[in-house]
Write a structure and sequence with these properties.
binds calcium ion; 3 domains; alpha+beta; Beta-galactosidase, Chain A, domain 5; binds 1-deoxynojirimycin; TIM Barrel; 7-stranded parallel beta sheet
């Protein structure tokens, strides 16, 4: 061991010591004196408000970075680097090269979203890492671009051609996130057969295995963090694998041949993101992921349609209908007209119809090759239905279930979008139920290959679909998708997606979604972007009895709250029409609530316990609030600081009744109106598994 190492043993990236050491470095400002025999320099960069501090250096030839929030280390000294199948690895023997600094503060507008006005405000440093002298030049080195915002850090690799090779095959990305192992983590496993559809676990970080992102953490210092990625384009999705206690390492989904990423240099990786906030709701109020994506590439997107939709859908999940043909076939012309009438009568713009096309009769879970995307079943008259819809001011929402057979889908995709475009369809829901082993493609040699849902092949497939759809003025709502990384900024027709356990699990899931599931989603999955959760089930046990193991584990009021809490520019009104007709007063909230917002503010919450979010109607003066609780009852107090002074408001409150309980008394609900003004506070009781939905109706100047 060298003298250098002995004198500062805490420099070594062993984890347990590593994080305390890094804290010490931050508190004592020791980075500059680490130079020693390896001549390391350091680069420091602060967020515009000065609270977040990033440091980059090279230790014994290995590039590293660390992040602090105030005087607290949040990411301890962590490795950067890349290894290739044939080119020389970019992992050691490196030194700091040129450092280029920049800053940006600009506003941009979202065509739809949680808020209209966005502020992209960061300090940036592009750090070059070069071959160490005197070894001579073997590689071309690489650069990492870091951006530090007030709400977190993003960084990406910028890789030039290496060893004379333009085509590079990545076999390891060495990016690490060394965190305090005593942090609490909310996470779902990665690379499981069920994609992202798992119940979240809350464990010490030290107990995390391989996790999907976003993974959200609370440090022992009470700082909230979420690790994810932004702008996942032409690269494999990143999971995080715990290599040593507290040390999460990038773990990219491999191709079927084992290579992680195939790229032609020069190329940039997606942004690796670290959202940082002093409180839990700060994560929800962060726009970091969107700010790290490229601006809109589609130009005029006024054809992108938001809104609420009903559908021939829940009926299949609770077995009232079938997707396939036969006596219970859901997608019939007659049934379609009934749903169109219901949508038109209640002001909903879309009707989703699943099971309309040939292919559902076989073992569709395992055989996507059966699907035709242009040929309807004989009892489904596409022209008659879409003409009827148009006459009633409603549009069909198309459906393309692929069962993961991407080759079969891509061969028909162009015709399928052209057909729908001709029939006035503006939104298509896609599906990748791939329980036959994964996403399938037929390669150049005609061999069937199985790929991951978040591997580079599938990442590229989704973007091919979104771009093809855009040419037909169609927006895409993907189920069993690749995770969201904010690409809606660049492609605003990528309108929503699933990518977590949605309402469907309450129809057949064993277990169904727990009451705390929707108190975790806003702090985890929803940080990535909109989710097509499909709220609004009014018949909570669909005849099975309230003590049935599989049922909706919420109160009625909580189903209403979901429309505000779980953001999506398209929201399903998911239950059977007859169940809404039985409860017209509660249904009124669903008719009123919009899906597009001028602004959104997460007001209060704790991960897995409760959350309260306020949103202002886009182009209007009304506000909406949704709040929900886990399995515990609680009282929350929400100050109305966001309301406009001198404006008169009436709050229309849909709350749990005094004895409401998701288990035994879920339908007890009180609907009341009262005047409310800025400066006042609303005190609200949430039942076990309960919630509250509020429309704050602006009544004009005082
Ligand atoms: C799974 C989707 O999440 C669900 O919404 C859909 O009904 C089925 N696949 C069939 O496509
Ligand atoms: Ca699903």
């Amino acid at each position: 061991m060298s003298h250098h190492e002995m004198s500062v043993p805490w420099l070594r990236p062993t984890v347990c010591r590593g994080w305390r050491a890094t804290m010490l470095m931050f508190s004592l400002g020791l980075f500059l004196i680490l130079a020693g025999s390896v001549a390391a320099k350091e680069v420091a960069l602060k967020s515009p408000d000065g609270k977040i501090v990033l440091r980059v250096d090279v230790e014994r030839g290995v590039p590293r970075y660390a992040v602090a929030y105030g005087d607290k280390a949040v990411v301890m000294s962590s490795r950067l680097g890349m290894r290739f199948k044939t080119a020389t690895p970019l992992d050691e023997g490196l030194r700091l090269g040129k450092v280029e600094r920049a800053s940006l503060d600009r506003r941009w507008e979202q065509p739809w979203g949680e808020r209209r006005q966005m502020r992209e405000h960061y300090n940036e440093v592009l750090v070059h890492f070069l071959e160490q002298a005197p070894k001579g030049k073997v590689t071309n080195g690489f650069a990492v671009r870091f951006r530090v915002f007030n709400d977190g850090v993003g960084f990406r690799y910028e890789i030039p051609p290496q060893s004379g090779q333009v085509h590079l095959e990545i076999v390891d990305e060495l990016t690490e996130f060394a965190m305090d192992p005593a942090s609490t983590a909310w996470w779902i496993p990665a690379r499981g057969w069920n994609r992202y559809e798992y119940l979240y676990k809350a464990t010490p970080l030290s107990e995390v295995g391989r996790a999907n992102t976003p993974i959200t953490l609370k440090t022992p210092d009470g700082i909230y963090l979420s690790l994810h990625e932004a702008a996942l384009v032409d690269y494999s999705g990143m999971s995080l694998d715990q290599k040593r206690s507290g040390l999460l390492k990038a773990d990219l989904a491999p191709w079927s041949d084992g290579v992680l990423v195939k790229a032609d240099a020069p190329f940039n990786t997606p942004w690796r993101t670290i959202q940082i906030a002093p409180d839990s709701v700060g994560l929800i109020n962060s726009d970091l992921i969107l700010n790290l994506n490229e601006p809109n590439k589609l130009g005029d997107v006024s054809w992108v349609e938001k809104g609420k939709y009903v559908g021939i859908w829940w009926g299949m999940h609770i077995k009232t209908y079938t997707w396939g043909s036969g006596p219970k076939h859901g997608a019939t012309t007659k049934n379609a007209k009934y749903y169109i009438d219901f949508a038109a009568k209640n002001g909903f713009s879309g009707v989703l119809i699943e099971g309309w096309n040939i292919g559902w009769d076989g073992d569709w879970f395992h055989n996507g090759a059966l699907f035709s995307f242009t040929q309807p079943y004989p009892d489904f008259d596409l022209k008659e239905i879409t003409d009827y819809a148009r006459a009633h001011g409603v549009r069909l929402i198309g459906h393309h279930e692929t069962s993961g057979d991407v080759s079969n889908y891509e061969a028909q995709m162009e015709d399928a979008f052209a057909l729908y475009e001709k029939r006035g369809v503006r939104i298509v829901k896609t599906g990748y139920v791939a329980d036959g082993g994964g996403i399938q493609r037929v390669d150049e040699n005609g061999t069937r290959r199985y790929e991951w849902h978040d591997g580079q092949f599938t990442v590229n497939h989704h973007l091919r679909v979104v771009k093809a759809a855009a040419r037909h003025h169609i927006s895409i709502n993907a189920h069993e998708p690749v995770k969201d990384t904010g690409l809606r900024r660049t492609y605003p027709n990528w309108i929503s997606r699933e990518g977590a356990r949605g309402q469907e699990y309450n129809a057949w899931g064993v277990p169904p979604n727990s009451p705390e599931h929707t108190a975790i989603l806003p702090f985890t999955r929803m940080l990535a972007g909109p989710m097509d959760f499909t709220p609004g089930i009014f018949d909570l046990d669909f005849g099975h009895g309230l003590d049935a193991p599989t049922r909706v584990q919420t109160t009625l009021a909580k189903q209403l709250a979901l429309y505000v809490v779980l953001y999506s520019p398209i929201q399903m009104v998911a239950d059977l029409p007859k169940n809404y007709e039985k409860r017209p007063k509660a249904f009124q909230f669903i008719k009123d609530v919009p899906t597009d917002w001028e602004d959104s503010i997460a007001l209060a919450g704790e991960i897995g316990d409760y959350v309260a979010i306020a949103r202002k109607v886009r182009g209007g003066a009304d506000w909406y609030i949704g709040a929900l609780s886990d399995e515990k009852a609680r009282t929350i107090v929400l100050p109305m600081d966001f309301l406009t002074a001198n404006e008169r408001y009436v709050a229309q409150i849909y709350r749990d009744g005094p004895k409401a309980d998701w288990k035994t008394n879920p339908y007890a609900m009180v609907i009341e109106e009262k005047p409310i003004a800025r400066g006042e506070a609303l005190r609200l009781w949430l039942a076990p598994g309960g919630g509250v939905a509020i429309r704050i109706h602006a009544m004009g100047r005082k």
